[in-house]
Amino acid sequence: MLYLDDITRKRLTQIVFGWLFLVVLYQWWANLMISQLEAPVLLRLDMDLTYWLVHATGIGALFQSSYASALIFDILLTAFCLVSVVFPKRVIFPILTGIFYLVYCILLNSYQCWHYHNLITLILLIIPFCFKSLKTFSLLFAGLRYAVVYIYASAAIWKLVRGSVFNDGQMQWLIEHNYVDRLAVDGYELGFFENAIFQLSNYPTLSSIALIIGVAMEASFLVAFFTRKFDRYLILIGVTFHLITTILVDVSFLQLWILFLVFIPSDRITSSPKTWWRRAQAEH
Amino acid sequence: MNFFLRDVWKQSKIVFAFFILFILGTIWTTVYKMEITPFFLWAHYSDKEVQTGKFHRVYIKVNGEFLDLPKLSRPTREMIQLPTEYFVQLEERSYETSTRHVLRKYLKEKCSESFYAKLENRLVNKQSDCEGFVKWLARYIEKIEGTKVRKLDIGTCDLVFQKDRTVKRVNEKPIAKLSGGDVVLR
Question: I need a surface site. Which of A19, B55, B98, B166 has the fewest CB within 10 A?
Answer without folding.
Answer: B166
